[in-house]
Design brief:
Elements: E1 5-7, H1 14-22, H2 24-33, E2 41-43, E3 48-54, E4 60-67, E5 80-82, H3 93-98, E6 100-105, E7 107-115, E8 121-131, E9 137-148, E10 151-162, H4 165-168, E11 173-175, E12 177-178, H5 183-187, H6 193-196, E13 204-208
Parallel strand pairs: 4-10, 5-10
Antiparallel strand pairs: 1-2, 1-7, 3-4, 6-9, 7-8, 8-13, 9-10, 9-12, 10-11
């Protein structure tokens, strides 16, 4: 799973942050939702951050979005969706088909999960994880439009997949991470999303934090 990630104000991420923060939508979301735009640091669910998605003309653009789908009957926003089932579940299938996005990050965080002596799952050390040889982590996601009072705004959820060997010892799930070269194809509604899973980056490096 993925419930935290980190953004550095690096040369690669700065343009995304500035584009989202200076947009009219971003300024309106700050006013209407009472949320700041996260520009750097650790990102948590319900935060507002820059996300890559197609504009109304189908061109790659950057939008401010809030992390988490609000789903009727659930008390907490849904922050992750499984690539194995997102295309079938009512809450995600429309977004899976035509509303896909990419969340730019420096790395994501995961907590070690292990079975204790009494057979229960325990949480251990926290790790920062990112693709080997890369300073940016492009996380695949889904987005949709939600409404707060009379205001509509975009929200996103992060897609996860089974962990590769490099991460499995920490957790059995990891974000679906794309190479930069695959972003345009992923966010294109004409692309078959399942065909993109083969592009997932799984060679990761990690550091205990």
């Amino acid at each position: 799973m993925c419930c935290r990630y980190y953004m550095e104000m690096s040369p690669e991420l700065r343009p995304y942050v500035e584009a989202a923060g200076h947009s009219q939508l971003g300024l309106t979301m700050i006013e209407k939702l009472g949320k700041p735009m996260i520009k750097k640091g650790e990102v948590c669910p319900t935060n507002m951050v820059p996300v890559i998605a197609p504009n109304k003309n189908g061109q790659k653009s950057v939008f401010p979005m809030v992390w988490g789908f609000n789903i009727k009957g659930l008390d907490q926003p849904v922050i992750n969706a499984r690539v194995e089932t997102a295309g079938e579940k009512k809450s995600f299938k429309d977004s899976w088909a035509s509303h896909r996005c990419v969340i730019p990050a420096s790395w994501y965080y995961e907590w070690e999960h292990f079975v204790s002596d009494n057979g229960k799952i325990k949480t251990g050390d926290k790790y920062a994880i990112q693709p080997s040889g890369s300073s940016v982590t492009y996380i695949a996601g889904l987005y949709k439009i939600e409404k707060y009072r009379d205001f509509t705004y975009p929200v996103f959820t992060i897609l996860t997949r089974q962990s590769d060997e490099s991460v499995k010892k920490i957790h059995d799930r990891m974000p679906f991470i794309l190479p930069y070269s695959a972003i345009d194809e992923w966010i294109d509604p004409k692309t078959n999303a399942l065909d993109m899973i083969k592009n997932s980056i799984t060679d990761m490096v990690m550091e205990k934090v």
